[in-house]
Amino acid sequence: MVRHTKYNKKIRITYIASAMVIGFSMMIAFPWKSSAVENKEGYYVATLNGVEIGSAATMDDIENALKSARLRINSESGQLTCIEQNLVVKSEDRITGFRLEEKQLEQRMYDALKASESIGSDKQKAYVVNIDDFTVTLGSQEDVIQLLNTAKSQYDVNNEFHIDLVEEKSDAYAYMTTESYKLDKQASDANIVMASDGIDETVQKTENIDAASEPDGIVDISFAEDIQILETYTESSKISDVQSAIDEVTKDKEENQTYVVSEGDCLSSIAERHNLYMAEILAMNPGLTSDSIIGIGDLITVTVPKPELSVVVREKSTFEESYDAEVQYVYNDSKYTNEQNVLSEGIPGHRQVTVLVTYENGSEISRDIISQNVIQEASPKVIEVGTMVPPTYIKPLAGGRFTSGYGARWGRLHKGVDWACPTGTAINASCGGKVVTAGWVGGYGYCVELAHSNGTHTRYGHLSKILVSVGDTVAQGDRIALSGNTGDSTGPHVHFEIISGGVQTDPLPYIN
Predict the structure, then answer these.
(1) Running DSSP on this structure, what letter comes out for residue 109?
(2) Which end of the chain has less neighbouring CB within 10 Å, N or C?
(3) For position 209, what pLDDT does the model report?
(4) Calpha distance 139→152 (Å, rounded)
(5) What is the chain's mean pLDDT, rounded?
């Protein structure tokens, strides 16, 4: 099996001490550029395929001359020509010396390349398929088409489409790319022709299909990657058999990578460990949600083999569905933003809708409605919402030791929270409001109670000294009292309550 490698377009330049040979056989069609040496005036001696070319003033001169020579050969031959290109460039530390002009360099490189043209008995025609940065070499156009159609076929189960090759040209070289054809129901493989020879009446270019006029089903198929197919001559050992190429391109032989859950794992930690987003973990593990509980020994898919060639399918679908009209909001400037009131529940409608769904490798990536027929109009849900920002609450003292929370205590309900603190600690207004109580209140001892604009009250008990009077208005954070040990108290502390709707509630969710 031929090893498939990523295509690397890079050459390296060596200096006086050691000359490294760039021995990669490149087609004349591929661009060549060196960035390994800073381009500055100097003395660079070039040898190409064992032939001494001469010296140049800059690396740019050598690069441009070689590129021009290759493009000249390509233009003359009218076909892609494989060139054995072994280049050695040495930089010499000298000021004087004869340097060739770029045109002289080009001619000498042209002569060296022509002498090395490698279309011979040890070479055979082949087709290099470049899929972005992945490359595979096949022996015929038929093998290339088989490779592409096999990648397509797992998403085109009814074989409605055919992938074919079409010839393209650039200023530098000719190549082929792909086109997808939708076959007529009466068409057969014998009707399929190369695009460069003309389009048979039994096939239709998918790029020209009007999705709105098509029946339900797959509208077109294409590939996500940029694909170029180049004709060349190479050794038979470098040509892949088509099945090996199919396995490599489609990843059919590879399996998902799984992770065994261990103690302390959760979905977020597994995602982070494998450099994934939570959404990616959930997409690879159908049935899991962000709230799923996982146990030791469970298997979590963490990677799914990604094919080198991604198939994009657009599919049209028509169906009936219930739908909701967009919610309408009525704004009330006398209510808070956290207050809502449903004025009308709304009634679902019913419609026939036609959508165009785009899939990549079987996963939906977009959905667009291209037409709809409303059978029954929906009436919207109407919600009244406030516009005023509600008040906030803060902890009524700095520091303190939390000693008792809201809830059952000593056989009865403890209606607030306690913080132990030295007598005389400053007690601050948790929320801005009006003082409605400032004095002795039974078991609370000395107590302050504030009324707030949203209807809630806050209460501060067991104080040693009160610093405000009934009717005063205070801002959030204002000092209103000093802590103490008055009333039913077992030690110096402050007792704090929040009262909503006339009933004490747990203050911690408010101040947290």
Answers:
(1) H
(2) C
(3) 59
(4) 20
(5) 82
Token pair listed for 217: 């089903």
Q: Which tokens in the block code for residue 211?
A: 């999705």
Percent helix, strand and coil across the chain, each to the nearest 5: 20, 40, 40
Angle at the Cα of 241 (from 236 to 243), degrees rounded to 5? Answer: 175
In which band, very low, low, confident or very high, does the pLDDT at 57 lie, cut at 50, 70 and 90? confident
pLDDT at position 14 over 60: no
Beta carbons of 217 and 316 less than 8 angstroms apart: yes
Burial class (CB in 10 A: 0-12, 13-18, 19+), 161: buried
pLDDT one-digit tens code per residue, 289-322 = 888 889 999 999 988 777 889 999 999 999 999 9
99-136: b or e for each residue (b if 16 or more CB lie within 10 Å)? bbebeebbbbbbebbeebbbeeeebebbbbbbbeebbb
The string of pLDDT tens digits covering residues 79-88 is: 555 566 678 8
| Residue where the block lists tokens 């003309």 | 198
Tokens of 202: 């039994």
CA distances to 153, 356, 413, 489 from 410, in Å: 73, 66, 8, 14
Distance CA 218, CA 238 (A): 37
**Amino acid, res. 308:** E
Selection from 34-43, 300-309, 440-449 with the highest mean pLDDT:
440-449
DSSP code per residue over 249-265 = HH-TT---EEEE--TT-
pLDDT value for 118: 52
The residue-averaged pLDDT of 411-422 equals 92
Name the nearest CA neighbour of 48 among 68, 73, 23, 30.
23
- Residue the block writes with tokens 């022996």: 139
As a whole number of angstroms, the distance between CA 66 and CA 58 comes to 13
Q: DSSP string of 112-134? A: HHHHTB--STT-EEEEEEEETTE
Task: Give the Cβ contact number of residue 403 at 10 Å.
Answer: 13
Phi, psi (deg, nearest 5) at residue 379: -105, 140
Which residues share a beta bridge with 404? 418
CA distance 112 to 65: 12
